[in-house]
Amino acid sequence: MEVTFLGTGTSMGIPMIGCRCDTCTSSDPRNNRLRTSVWIQKKKKNIIVDTGIDFRQQALRYAIPTLDAVLFTHHHVDHIFGLDELRPIHFLQNKTVKVFGTSETREHLLRVYPYVFEAGNCPSDVPKIEYHTFSNEPFIFIDIKIIPIPLFHGNLPIMGFRLDNFAYCTDVSRIPRSSYSLLENLDVLVLGALRDSPHPTHFTLSEAVDEAQKIAARRTYFVHMSHELSHQEMLNRLPAQMEPAFDGLKITL
Question: What topology does CATH give the domain 2-252?
Answer without folding.
Answer: Metallo-beta-lactamase; Chain A (3.60.15)
